[in-house]
Amino acid sequence: MNALETFIVESAIDSEKAFYRQIIEDNLSSLKLGPAIGRIKVVLRPEDSLFQMVIILRDVGTKVTTLDMADVEAKTGASQEVVISIKKERYIPELLKKLWERHGKANIRQPDRWTVAVDSDKPQEEAEFLGKMIVADPRHTLHEDLVDFAIRATPEGFRVRYHLFKGNRFVFVASEESMQKEWVEEAGAMLEELLAGGKTK
Amino acid sequence: MTSIFLPYLYTGGVHKHGLILELLEDLGGYIIQKVVVGTEVNLIMLIPEKDVHLVKELSDELLGVLLVASLTGVEIAVVSPTLASHHLPHSACDVAEYLRHPGANTNMIGLARGMGRRVSLSMDYERKLINEHDIAVFTFGSFSDCIINKKPKLFEGIEIPIVVTGGPELKTEEVPGADLYVGGIGRVSHRLRHKNEIDALDTLNEEIGKVADKIRKQLAKDPLAVLPARVMKEIENQVPAISRVLSPAPITMQLNGLRVKLPYDEFHEKFENLEFDEGVVLSELANISRSKMKNYILIKIKSKSDVGFAI
């Protein structure tokens, strides 16, 4: 599935469709969600105060361990420490957070941008553990971002919301009135349509 | 009050801009606002009609630019349904910022419960606050159904001219209660910078200029007892505390009054007793009350027919 291979916005009035497409595009880009979304369909019915959105996600990356983003080396000599040489800078904040929690800020040095050194009594064992430690889970942040995106894209007054996130499918229905079963069912049908619609993997 | 004053904006270097201030003082004009940004200075001023060419000549000599600022002395309320990220900073802030180009002072007002279709409403306090301004600009969204059928209930109790912006291209008559509708500025999540968006903002400025002119014409039929700009000058001379106020516009001019950003309890007597050369005090010429905005002082000048004379 390509990124944004299907992008449909439906509304009774054509010009309003274009406005809403723009809002959704802007929000996708500001949350950097574009590459994660394969197919998206949004239906707007302002006269019913109804907003429905279904999304099929592309394969989101697997969990990132320290070894995925850095080389881990144990140093046993004058100074006993674990040296982590960073390869992918993107996950440094998450890595540091985890290291600080485990070892305390005092025991962690950053001599330069690409190196993190951790003081440890048993560097060998510690290096093994740190190597396997999960640093980031894109799936978790993706969920947060998706919900944020849905709330940003919805008209503000639509405060009654239904959302479902299962596997790579995301369904979101919002309204100002109390939620009706048919609306959620309609959204379900839209999802089926999207699944069948676009190209296969 | 025989001479007619025209609003102008001077933009130029800080170097020698004092010459403009001196010339304006000699001509009997008024400085409304002076903003110094780095080495640049913006002067918003009222120049007597027959002397505009003198200021123009001096401004050319100083290599500055002199432009007509049609919204000078107009205080505009930019009202957005709420202060949530759906409406701010784009497009409501862009509208407010753009209205400042021709000299208007704008205040952003986010309603507490203005969002939604059925549930949107405004509070008494909010309506009174909006009514303190000269013009209210409501920034609405992208759906014509909402703008035509649902949102106009927010206009109830608003006594000043109402300008509405929204996404779809509608006619003013289609929006009940609005004095003007400008399309092409709906809900957006990016900064307004495309050509059609800037065009829409230009149209908005132009049309609001016309609304302001209409109010000025109405006022001219029964003129104010004293020019707001003259009251401003007297305040600067007689109330030294105003020079220590840090707000960008310590005295904000309106078409029929002023908002002074000093605490009401401490200062209102000083303003009531503000003296003019003709021997009258301000309380004879204007209503001085507590503003709904913070604890400021709101001065609304009475008309000539109310007072019996004008100075």
Biggest sheet strand line-up of chain B: 6-5-7-8-9
> What gross morphology of chain B would you assign?
globular
Largest interface, counted by CB within 8 Å of the partner chain's CB: A-B, 22 and 26 residues
Second rung of CATH, namely the architecture of the largest domain in chain B: 3-Layer(aba) Sandwich
Oligomer: heterodimer
Query: Can you tell me the CATH topology of the largest domain in chain B?
Result: Rossmann fold
Helical coverage of chain B, percent range: 25-40%
Give a structural overview.
- The complex is a heterodimer of chains A (201) and B (311).
- With 201 residues, chain A is of the alpha+beta class.
- Chain A has two domains: 6-61 and 138-197, no CATH class; 64-136.
- In chain A, 38% of the residues lie in helices and 31% in strands.
- In chain A, the strands form three sheets. In chain A, strands 1-2-3-11-10 form a five-stranded mixed β-sheet, sandwiched between helices. Chain A has a four-stranded antiparallel β-sheet with strand order 5-6-8-7. A two-stranded antiparallel sheet of chain A has the order 4-9.
- In chain A, strand 5 (70-75) and strand 6 form a beta hairpin.
- Chain A is elongated, with a radius of gyration of 23 Å.
- The mean pLDDT of chain A is 88.
- By secondary structure, chain B is α/β, with parallel strands linked by helices.
- Chain B folds into three domains: 5-68, Alpha-Beta Plaits (2-Layer Sandwich); 75-219, Response regulator (Rossmann fold); 228-307.
- Helices cover 32% and strands 23% of the residues of chain B.
- Chain B has ten helices and 13 strands.
- Chain B has helices at 18-27, 52-61, 92-100, 124-131, 144-150, 195-221, 228-238, 264-272, 282-285, 304-307, and strands at residues 5-13, 30-37, 40-48, 65-68, 75-80, 105-110, 135-139, 162-165, 180-182, 251-254, 257-260, 286-290, 297-301.
- A five-stranded parallel β-sheet of chain B has the order 6-5-7-8-9, sandwiched between helices.
- Chain B is globular.
